[in-house]
Fold:
Amino acid sequence: MIAPEEILLTALRALRTNKMRSLLTVLGMIIGVAAVIAMFAVGTGAQVRITERFASMGSNLLVVFPGSSRSGGVRGGGGTLPTLTLEDAEAILRECPAVADVAPRVSGRTQVVYGNANWSTSTVGSTASLLSIRNWTLESGRNFTESDQRSAAKVCILGATVASELFGGEDPLGKIVRVNKIPMTVVGLLAAKGSSAAGSDQDDTVLVPVTTAMKRLFGARFPGKIQDMTIQAKSAAEIAAAESQITDLLARRHRIRPGEENDFTVRNLSEIMEAAQEGARIMSLLLAAVASVSLLVGGIGIMNIMLVSVTERTREIGIRAAVGARGADILLQFLAEALLLSLAGGILGICTGAGGAFLISHFADWPAVIAPESVALAFGFSAAIGVFFGFYPAWKASRLNPIEALRYE
Amino acid sequence: MALLELENIHKTYDLGEVQVHALRGVTLSVRKGEYLAIMGTSGSGKSTLMHILGCLDTPTEGRYLLDGKDVSGLGGDDLARIRNDRIGFVFQGFNLLARTSAVENVELPLLYAGVPRKERRQRALEALALVGLSGREHHQPHQLSGGQQQRVAIARSLVNGAPLILADEPTGNLDTRTSEEVMELFSHLNETAGITVILVTHEPEMARYVERIVTIRDGLVVSDEAKARERSFAS
Structure:
């Protein structure tokens, strides 16, 4: 038996002797592996982005919507009948042990004016809790205070988009803006967050105290009511508990009789995130499955070339046999050639795939994450392809009769 | 002492419908250091005999002792080992690896013998020097003349220190002058290194160099005569 490094060197020399053919064979593998790597990277990137977007909305969240209105046989959509009150929100925070924090919400479109600049945006009335629940951070200034809430103070916090649209480079803190003609002092600036999971600009917003929104901005239609509330459970494990505690409490407070339909809906955001992630995962598996077909084609290319090579090099095999190569030596040499081809294809394919993923993420503004597992998988898979598709030609070579092989023209 | 001993060797090829009797009972003994020619026309069975002598094939019947060891019933891997360290081949068509340098061609038997790289290179260079190809070690076959290629093949047959060289029509592809050079090289190796050389040929003029002629016809030895060398390297 000859030493493994000698087998590799001999195989390498044979591949170098047929540079062009080796290159073309490797190309098939490169394309296959690169496709798998790039598809996995893009798919993983999609999952990461979904997780990020949901995380930017806050974690362990539940949203309580009012129920739907009913007038005759016509049933309005969820939220058409305002049934939730600020007192409901306070009661939830007070009485549900699994709930960490509650942010009630009243919102609507407003026209915000500063000097000559004006900007139409969504204004959200809420409490100081909103910032922590929704993972907002303050770039500068302060959050709302208890006294802001009590007095329905004319203060607001600007989102990054609104601030730059109205103030450009100027510092908005302490300035007075008019929100639907009501002058309000800017007390805080939100740090930019980017777009949401649904793709809307989260920074295009103005926050005001919930009482201010109810009394001064949007209170005319449904006095005393809030639109919905966002609730943070104490931990991921307590989301389900929080959900049932909230449902029980609100049913009691709203005097819903057993068997009657609730006039509110509690929705769990982490379930939505899981569904979206599952979708992305299935998508990336699908893409990788399609890409792996090209990997298979690359493997068949190797087998094809190795078979041609065995026929073409029959005389070489005969010479090697005549000077003392045993069947196993010949088999290992050809197997090593196939393995080197497929591994070279694998390595170059990983590089190409990584480059492709980088280009996609660069130009399509899409995160591409190259997981070490997928690199290891592609590498192992290409080695397996080399052995699998290289074995038959190598076995054929090792079975050649030296006399006939030497006679071969 | 006998280097090879063939006793009643038969070789039958089964081609389904017909059986071809290529050898019908060859008995032959070759001493160490002999220089002989096996002669015969094509179809006489001399190629089959050469394949059996070279351990490329096994007889259907009969006993073949090489260096006292019965090799007639051995399997492929054992035959490969014997070819590797007991027998050197020289072919009509040279049979060098294309696009591979002379020294790498010569190293080939050592590679399969498991000789370490440094020693391999050293011994291959020595063998090339012995056949007068110093300075051409890194030429590829297509850069060498026919005579030079055949000398590379001879170096390859020598490099493992095999006691036996089997040369199958070694001058068939060479012109007269080059043929003489190659034949003289065999004589030289036979005389100075004591290597047993068996020449398989149908050209009567090659017989001038040898000291014994075995003639094969229809699968049988029809004559086996010793003679004086008419030409040798020394003359």
Observations:
- Chain B is about 30% helix and 30% strand.
